[in-house]
Specification:
By secondary structure, this protein is α+β, with helices and mostly antiparallel strands. 44% of the residues lie in helices and 17% in strands. It is built from eleven helices and ten strands. A hairpin with a 2-residue loop joins strand 5 and strand 6.
Length: 293
């Protein structure tokens, strides 16, 4: 049972895969692989879905994804427009702690780093104050080879393991395992909602995309995402609203609410606080204060 299981091609002379992507948009399907993935987004913005949780991503952010953690970096809808000249630039490191590196991680000297990898199977987003330090180390690894590359990689793991309070990307219940066919269907529903979130989407619209009755769709969606359709749609909309509020491109909060699919500012404020724990204005204030510091 799998979600579009990927096999990362591993060269015989390498145990760490370093990949740089320069593309019109991120790979648009929900997937997972045996390798742990460390991604530095040099350029691009959108939404990361990891297990059953959503996170906005922007340029110059770093994410750790655990082995076999279902995920998708979904680029903003504007990246998919026919005349779009946007592009994403990302560095990705893959390594399998249970593959070629298994005996290495089993060395007694590696116990702390092995524990670090095991403790972060739900992934994490690197706090912004550490991005410069870690991205510089990633570039050094990308520019090296052989034993030097492996030694620098261990240094990177040591650095990451020294940071306190790395909040997981997904908490609580893990998304249930499902078949490849179901994974494709869930991925298509994600795509539909994330591209149409600013329009008045109904349950019937989403069910039609999945070729199901509304009742069957509700059961299927809750079983495989741990969300109701409405709660998932609201999270997508609030996630987009958070990006718009902090990008500073809109005149006021009401405009953001309406461009994210809400038809009532009262409902927007209620849903926003329910998901983020803050009002929109409180969220903006705390965001800009953290940026200034």
């Amino acid at each position: 049972m799998k979600v579009l299981q990927f096999t990362i091609p591993v060269p015989l002379d390498k145990s760490i895969i370093v990949q740089k992507d320069v593309l019109p948009y991120f790979y648009p399907h929900l997937h997972r692989h045996q390798e742990v993935q460390l991604t530095w987004i040099q350029k691009g913005e959108g939404t990361l879905v990891a297990d059953n949780n959503m996170h906005a991503f922007r340029s110059n952010e770093i994410f750790w994804l655990g082995a076999n953690q279902p995920h998708i970096f979904k680029s903003e809808p504007s990246y998919f427009l026919p005349k779009s000249k946007k592009k994403i630039v990302a560095w990705m490191f893959f390594f399998n702690p249970n593959g070629q590196l298994a005996s290495f991680f089993n060395l007694p000297e590696m116990k702390l780093l092995k524990n670090f990898v095991q403790q972060h199977q739900s992934g994490f987003k690197l706090p912004s104050q550490h991005v410069i330090e870690v991205s510089n180390k990633m570039l050094r690894i990308a520019q090296s080879a052989g034993a030097d590359q492996l030694m620098l990689f261990v240094e990177l793991l040591k650095q990451l393991s020294s940071y306190p309070d790395l909040a997981p990307l997904s908490a609580g219940n893990k998304t249930p395992m499902f078949s490849e066919h179901e994974g494709i269907r869930i991925g298509n529903i994600y795509n539909f909602i994330m591209q149409q979130y600013d329009k008045p989407i109904t349950l019937e619209d989403a069910a039609k995309q999945a070729h199901m009755t509304p009742q069957a769709f509700c059961r299927f969606f809750k079983k495989h995402t741990l969300h109701t359709f409405v709660s998932f749609l609201n999270e997508v909309r609030i996630n987009e609203a958070c990006k718009k509020l902090t990008d500073g491109e809109y005149d006021n909060i009401a405009t953001v609410a309406y461009t994210c699919g809400f038809n009532s500012i009262t409902n927007f404020n209620r849903v926003f606080k329910g998901i983020t724990g803050q009002s929109p204005s409180e969220y903006m204030n705390s965001y800009f204060q953290s940026v200034e510091h």
